[in-house]
Amino acid sequence: MHNLYIHPDNPQPRLIAQAVHALQNDLLIIYPTDTSYAFGCKIGSKNALAKLKSIRQLADDHQFTLLCQDLSEIATYATVDNQQFKLLKAITPAPITFILTATKGVPKKLSHPKKKTIGIRVPSNPVAQQLLAAMGEPILTSSLILPDMSIALDDPFDIEDKLSSQVDILVNTGTLTTKLTTVIDMTTNPPVLVRQGAEDVSHIMN
């Protein structure tokens, strides 16, 4: 594992470029979000996705999430009506994953095989935003939770200790929170709270 020590508020462009180069070359990275660290790989990657699924022991029906720079990217990957878009616009960026109906632009192995859904998230974290801007497309992301753990790894020393031989790059911004995103299923009416995480969404669920 190669450690990239990146400033959490003013990420160095040279180091962002190194992380993006790794993503574009089908490598698996760990990077900071506005909640915990997360696994990241390029949409359509083969080796990195296989490595991610192996590390987390994910089932084939796992609900993946795409981290998007802003709402302009969503239409390519998810179907949203006017009401849903207004809600998304009002509360993003935020530590919330929205489960939406996937479009045909989403590779089949990333959408839920039965529900045909995809998770969409717009982060506020400066490092994640710079990575997304440099990538020019969403990053396939997954919580940094290992099979024998119930919370996310938050300390870079622990991450390196447990995953140094399996992950290619750690975008290191120091210790983060163990909190996960709040997850809302937007494919039902009204929306359903799937997981209560870092963001309280009780005010928008009624």
**Which second-level CATH architecture applies?**
Alpha-Beta Complex
Q: With helices defined by DSSP (H or I, 4 residues minimum), what is the helix count? A: 6
- Which stretches are poorly predicted, pLDDT < 50 over at least 5 residues? none
- Counted up, domains total 1
CATH superfamily: DHBP synthase
Taking the sheet with the most strands, its summary is: 11 strands, mixed
- Determine the strand fraction and express it as a percent band: 15-25%
Q: Report the end-to-end length measured between terminal Cα atoms.
A: 45 Å
User: Order of helices and strands, N to C?
Assistant: EHEEHEHEHEEHEHEEE
Classification by helices and strands: alpha/beta
Can you give the helix content as a percent range? 25-40%
The top-level CATH class is Alpha Beta
Description:
- With 206 residues, the protein is α/β, with parallel strands linked by helices.
- The N and C termini lie far apart (45 Å).
- It has six helices and eleven strands.
- The protein has helices spanning 13-24, 47-56, 74-77, 82-91, 126-135, 156-163, and strands at residues 2-5, 29-32, 37-42, 65-67, 78-79, 96-102, 117-121, 139-143, 169-172, 182-185, 192-195.
- Strands 1, 2, 3, 4, 5, 6, 7, 8, 9, 10 and 11 form an eleven-stranded mixed β-sheet that branches.
- The relative contact order is 0.24.
- The model has no long low-confidence stretch (mean pLDDT 92).
- A hairpin with a 4-residue loop joins strand 2 (29-32) and strand 3 (37-42).
